[in-house]
C-alpha cells in the first residue's frame, strides 16, 4: 500500500522511530541528530544503535524512542521506519517490530520493500530520497531523511537548525548551508504525510544530560577518584576509554592503551599498589583473560575497578549486541576462594552513581570490584535528568607512620588493614599472589592461610553497603526480581499495569550482586509469596545465583531468554498478567 496524502495528526505519549541502512550510509548520524533536536524541545528519549560486526557496510540502524517522561527502554513497536536502503535488513527485522499503525518511508531506487515489512500491514510511502538529495548542492540522503522525520514529528525549525550548527561547526559554512537546505527539502517532501506528535509538549530543562551509559561510567569513575586507567580497546566498552582519555587529562590523571587485556589488568594492579585509584574497562573475552590477575588483587588486597560492558557470548559471539550473560564469570570466575564485589547499574543515569560507588567500595575494602553493564546500556544515548551526585567516599585506609613491627595484613576486626604506599619509611612489605603471614611473608602454614582467608571474607561480607544494594519499589504479595538494563522494561511494564489497577507487585532490582545480602533481602521479600525472575541470558544465571544464596518463596517462576532481542514493556506486562493469574 502506498500513501502520500495523510495530513492528520497522530498524537501519542511516546514515539519510536527506526532509521536503517548500510553501515556508513548515515543512519546512526540521523538518529543522533533527531535525539538532540528532540532534547532541545524539552523531550526525553533514547537512541540505541544496532549494527553488524563490519567496520563499514553491513547492517546499521538507529532506534530512537521519544517521550514527555523519562525513558529507560525501547518501546513495543515502531511508529516510523525510514529506510535509506534495504541491504541486509533481514538481519535487523526481528529488532524492529512493526504493525498496521506503522509508517514506512522508502526510496524506490533502493529496491523493493522486503516481504517481512509488507506482511506487517504497515503503511508504505515511497519517496525518492536519493534523487531529492542530489537536487541540492552537496546534499546528502541522511540529511534529507533527518528533514523528513523532523517534519513528521513536528520538530521546530529552530531546534533542528541549532543541532546542525553544533554538529557541523567544524566543517565550515558551506557544509552547514548545504545540510540546512537538504533538511528543508526533506521537510517539504513530507508535508503531506501524517504527523506523529507527542501528546503534551516537553519543557526545556537546562539541567538535563544527553549521555551514554559508557560515558556515564567514565564520569562516575572520575568522581570516585580514579586517576589511572589502562585498557585495550574492545567492543562495546571502548567508549568508556575514549571518554576517560580526555577526562583524566583534565583531572590530572592518565590513560594508557595497553597491548592487550593481560597487560592492562596488571598495569592497574601495579598503579593501585602504588597508591593511585585505578580502573580498566573491557567486555566478556577481556574479562576472561583478566581472571588470574584479579585473583592476585584479592590475595594482595589491592583495590581496583573493572567495568565489563557485556555482549553476546560465548567467545566473540555477537560483539555488537547486548546480553546479561557475564554474571557467572563475574561472580564465580576466580579460582580458589576469592571474595570480591560485583555491582550492576540499572539505567544509563545510574551508571554515574554506581560506578562512583564501585570505586569507593574498592578503595574502602582494598579489593577488586567488577561493574556489570551491557552493550544496550553502554552505547545507548539517553536524555536524562541530572542524576543526584554522591559525596566522596572515605577512601583508602593508609598508614603514613608505620610502627617498627608494621604488619600489612594485620588481622583487624573489620578485616581491613592499613596499607602503606611504596616509599613510606618502614612500610616495606611483599605483595604477591602467595599466601602470607600478617607481615606479607610467604607462608605455607595452615593457620596463616585460614586467618587470611577469613580476614578477606570478613572485610567483604561484613561491610555495610547501606540501601544501595537494590532498588525496592511497590508492595504486594507478588515480586519481580531483576537486574541491570532489564530493569527499565520491567519498570515500564509495572507502570502500565498500575494504570489498569494492578498494584500488588513489588519490584526488586539488585544493584549489589555479590556479596549476597540475605538479611536485607529477607526484609525486602517479607509478605511476598510469589516471585518472577526476569533476565536477559539463556541459562538463567541470576535464577541460579538467587537459589544458591537466598531463601526464596516456594512459588517462583522464571522468564529469561538470550540476547540480542531486548525485552519490551508490553511482552513483560503480558507475561506478568499470565503469571499473576495462574
Provide the descriptors you would attach to this structure in a database record.
eight-stranded mixed β-sheet; 22 strands; alpha/beta; 3 domains; 18 helices; 20% strand; Rossmann fold; 582 residues; 35% helix; disordered N terminus; Pyruvate-ferredoxin Oxidoreductase, domain 3; seven-stranded mixed β-sheet; globular
What report would you give on this structure?
The protein has helices at residues 27-40, 115-118, 129-134, 141-152, 157-168, 173-189, 213-224, 238-250, 261-273, 284-300, 327-332, 350-365, 375-379, 446-461, 486-498, 518-525, 541-549, 569-581, and strands spanning 9-12, 14-22, 44-51, 59-67, 80-83, 103-106, 123-126, 195-198, 209-212, 228-231, 254-257, 278-282, 304-310, 341-343, 368-374, 381-384, 470-473, 478-483, 505-510, 512-514, 530-535, 555-560. It is an alpha/beta fold. It folds into three domains: 9-198, 3-Layer(aba) Sandwich (Pyruvate-ferredoxin Oxidoreductase, domain 3), CATH 3.40.920; 210-384, Rossmann fold; 466-581, Rossmann fold (3-Layer(aba) Sandwich), CATH 3.40.50.920. β21 (530-535), α17 (541-549) and β22 (555-560) form a beta-alpha-beta unit. The longest helix is centred in the N-terminal third of the chain and has 17 residues, at 173-189. The radius of gyration is 26 Å and the shape is globular.
- Coarse morphology: globular
In the CATH hierarchy, what is the architecture of the largest domain at level 2? 3-Layer(aba) Sandwich
Main sheet: which strands, in order across? 7-6-5-2-4-3-16-9
| Assembly form of the protein | single chain
- Overall pLDDT score: 94
Task: Look up the CATH topology of the largest domain.
Answer: Pyruvate-ferredoxin Oxidoreductase, domain 3
How many domains comprise the coordinates?
Answer: 3
> What is the CATH superfamily classification of the largest domain?
Pyruvate-ferredoxin oxidoreductase, PFOR, domain III
Number of helices: 18
Q: What proportion strand?
A: 15-25%
Helix residue percentage: 25-40%
**Low-confidence spans:** 1-8
Note the main sheet.
8 strands, mixed
